[in-house]
Specification:
Blueprint: H1 17-33, E1 45-46, E2 51-54, E3 61-66, E4 69-72
Antiparallel strand pairs: 1-2, 2-3, 3-4
């Protein structure tokens, strides 16, 4: 836009939504590499010992350690313990 003096104004703008979504997806996959996973919404099953699900970003089997804290399942890591 031009200002009343005829000069162009620098108007800050947010990046397009698709770029923000791509950045969020990359960040989520990076967190998966550090064993910080997220289940798909509220979908988790009780297997008699713990809540289990699959990560919404990488698809790996995960187990809930505490509310909001999910890690790779021990079965995925080749260890049979809870």
């Amino acid at each position: 836009m031009d200002s009343p003096s005829g000069e162009a104004e620098d108007v800050p703008h947010s990046p397009p939504a698709h770029l923000a979504e791509q950045l969020a997806a990359r960040l989520a996959r990076l967190l998966c590499r550090f064993n910080r996973h997220q289940p798909p919404g509220k979908r988790a099953e009780w297997n008699g010992e713990a809540y289990v699900s699959h990560c919404r970003h990488c698809g790996q089997p995960i187990v809930r350690l505490a509310r909001g804290r999910w890690r790779l399942s021990d079965q995925r890591r080749g260890v049979n313990r809870m």
